[in-house]
Amino acid sequence: MEDTIFTKIVRREIPADIVYEDAETLAFLDVKPVAPGHTLVIPKKPVRNIFDVDDKTLAAVMRTVRKIAPAVRDAVGAHGVHINSNHEAAAGQIVFHLHFHIIPRHDRNEFSFWEQKETASRDAALLAEKIRQTIG
Ligand code: 5GP
């Protein structure tokens, strides 16, 4: 995998406001936060996204997400967090190194990430069946 800006942060080649580090993961503030305290959690190992990450690396990242989320919430006096992650450009991934966004949320009306739509139950049942059949 090619170097990304996040590999450079792991190697301390560019600066970041690091909030946590262990052998496998790193957490640092997003340079363009959706809300103050917006933190990114990444594996040190360069994996692109959910489509190529191994179970051990993902488990390490999620352990760090769980560890950091309450600290992010409490540090800014928020009441909840979004744990968001984009995988591939079509979904808004810009940095192709797996990362989870932890975004503090003070109340429900601050902003909206996406619109949801009603769906016919038959359409949902067909889609659920297709996904079940496609699980590797
Ligand atoms: P994505 O759209 O790939 O899920 O989000 C990438 C995130 O990385 C964006 O929220 C962006 O602001 C953040 N980001 C991009 N470059 C840098 C950087 O050099 N330093 C830090 N701390 N965050 C970055």
Secondary-structure blueprint of this entry?
Elements: H1 5-10, E1 18-21, E2 25-29, E3 39-43, H2 55-75, E4 80-84, E5 100-105, H3 121-134
Antiparallel strand pairs: 1-2, 2-3, 3-5, 4-5
The structure holds guanosine-5'-monophosphate (5GP).
Which properties best describe this structure?
single chain, about 140 residues, alpha+beta, HIT family, subunit A, 5-stranded antiparallel sheet, 5 strands, binds guanosine-5'-monophosphate
Structure characterization notes:
The protein is an alpha+beta fold and 136 residues long. The protein has one domain: 2-Layer Sandwich (HIT family, subunit A), CATH 3.30.428. Helix content is 30%, strand content 18%. It has three helices and five strands. It has a five-stranded antiparallel β-sheet, with helices on one face. Strand 1 and strand 2 (25-29) form a beta hairpin. It is globular, with a radius of gyration of 17 Å. The two termini are 24 Å apart. The mean pLDDT is 94. Residues 5, 16, 28-32, 86, 92-95 line the site of guanosine-5'-monophosphate.
